[in-house]
Amino acid sequence: MIRPLRQRHQVTLCTLGVILPLAFVAGIAARKPVPVATALPPRLASNAKDLGKVVLTRTDLWPGQRIITSLRRNAAGSLAVEFTFRDLVKPDVLLYWATGKEGTAGNGLPDNARLLGALSNGAPLPIPAEARGEAGRFILYSLADQEVVAASSAFIIQKD
Questions:
Q1: Longest Cα separation, the chain
Q2: What is the distance in angstroms between the CA of the first residue and the CA of the last residue of the chain?
Q3: Which of 19, 30, 56, 148 has the most CB atoms around it within 10 Å of its CB?
Q4: How far apart are CA 93 and CA 2, in angstroms?
Q5: 3-state secondary structure at position 16
Q6: Is the pTM value of this prediction over 0.70?
Q7: Per DSSP, what are the bridge partners of residue 79?
């Protein structure tokens, strides 16, 4: 009784040893490619045109980094910040605004840091009205690494 069961298990394992790798390779080959949008949908494209004009562009704001910072103001008076960078390779980077001229202590965020949004190359992020008129700095924080990636020099965002 035991010998026929062992023989059956041996045949089953040998069959699975051949079929499973073949099924895996076939599954990988049959995957659909990741879709890539070639153009923005009209609903989003209209928002991209309403970013307003550039009121300030600084290339020297980030010591040791090659990041271009642009401030945009739309017709309603709202401000947004836009970053252009090439060699910033960190996962899950978030942008914070911290008031005050002091730097970051260690790898943590200051207590007064306010989240502006996820960093994206060329995508504007709104600046809250309470951040204007006070000295402060932008801070790039990697959520995955739990560390400050870069901190800008202190500057003042002018009120209207």
A1: 90
A2: 90
A3: 148
A4: 60
A5: helix
A6: no
A7: 73
CB 137 within 8 A of CB 98: yes
Phi and psi at 36, nearest 5°, equal: -125, 125
Determine the residue type at 156: I
The position carrying tokens 């069961």 is 5
CA 137/CA 104 separation, integer angstroms: 10
Instruction: From 149, 160, 158, select the one nearest 65 (Cα to Cα).
Output: 149
> Could you give the count of Cα atoms lying within 13 Å of 99 in the half-sphere of its Cβ?
10
List pLDDT tens digits, range 22-73: 999 999 999 988 887 777 676 665 555 556 788 888 888 888 888 888 888 8
Quick one: which of 102, 95, 156 has its CA closest to 123? 95
- Picking from 64, 62, 59, 44, the residue whose alpha carbon sits closest to that of residue 124 is 44
